[in-house]
Amino acid sequence: MQRLNDKVALVTGGAEGLGKAVAQRLAADGAKVAITDVQRDVGKATASEGGFTFIEQDVCDEGRWTQVIQEVEKRFGRLNILVNNAGILGPMDLVNPENTPLAVWRKIFAVNVEGVFLGCRAAIPAMRRAGNGSIINFSSVAGLLATPYATAYGCSKAAVRQLTKSVAQHCAQEKLNIRCNSIHPGIIITPLWLRQAEETAKLRGISPEQVIEEAKTEIPLGDFTLPEDVAAAVSFLASDDSRHVTGTKMIVDGGVINCDTYHLSAK
């Protein structure tokens, strides 16, 4: 029996990259999966390929969250799993504590923090109706480190970690049978990260390949985290195998944090 049989999952930012890998793994483990994204065409193609339901969504749109949850419940009857994956990095210039524009700061927080908050807030009543639930919020190793080269991004991911603990504690105190945990991936070669590497390379006057190689040398296990590595962790947290795990942070980074090796910056 697959570990997620009879579960219904919603994955934000599921059109490509990490979100797509997560959706594929949850489906492979037996869940019925809906993905959302602002990228309509890419999202529809991914959904068609994976047998998912696609719903167009900007996670910053408060009213849209209510509609998305209603669509999932109407189609599948319930919601058991929410993966708050949607997020942005922002530009690779104007990012340190001295020169980050307020508009950039607010945009990153709107997607990375407010989008996650709105997702948690909308999902809790649905999971209460379902009788159980697992919320998995995507943070990052950047939320556990100083990030002067990506100040707003790092701060936003740290906020996701704190929010996760608060949601977990609330649901436990209310005896809702809803768990909430955060995932902290390391460096993953996704389209989003490659775009960041290209921007960094231009700023430093080097090749993207050099940026990628420098990043790889910082990882104790010697290679980048794969989307599938993170998706496997998500599947565990989504399943009843982790029924007594809530409020925790799961780090999937090849040893970067625990071995204290990460020193990359916009040199």
User: Cα-atom Rg, whole angstroms?
Assistant: 18 Å
Determine the number of helices (DSSP H or I, runs of at least 4 residues).
8
What are the secondary-structure elements, in order, as H or E?
A: EHEHEHEHEHEHHHE
Please report the total strand number as a whole number.
7
Spans where pLDDT lies below 50 across 5 or more residues: none
State the end-to-end CA separation.
Answer: 50 Å
Question: What's the main sheet like?
Answer: 7 strands, parallel
Oligomerization status of the protein chains = single chain
Q: In percent, how much strand structure appears in the residues?
A: 5-15%
Q: What is the helix content?
A: 40-55%
Content-based structural category: alpha/beta
Averaged pLDDT, please?
Answer: 93
Name the overall outline: globular
Strand order of the largest sheet: 3-2-1-4-5-6-7
Walkthrough of the structure:
- By secondary structure, the protein is of the alpha/beta class.
- It is built from eight helices and seven strands.
- The chain has helices at residues 17-28, 40-50, 62-76, 102-130, 151-173, 191-204, 208-217, 227-238; strands at residues 8-12, 32-37, 53-56, 81-84, 133-138, 178-185, 249-252.
- A seven-stranded parallel β-sheet has the order 3-2-1-4-5-6-7, sandwiched between helices.
- Helix 4 (102-130) links the parallel strand 4 (81-84) and strand 5.
- Helix 1 crosses helix 8 (227-238) and helix 3 (62-76) packs parallel to helix 4.
- The longest helix is centred in the middle third of the chain and has 29 residues, at 102-130.
- The model has no long low-confidence stretch (mean pLDDT 93).
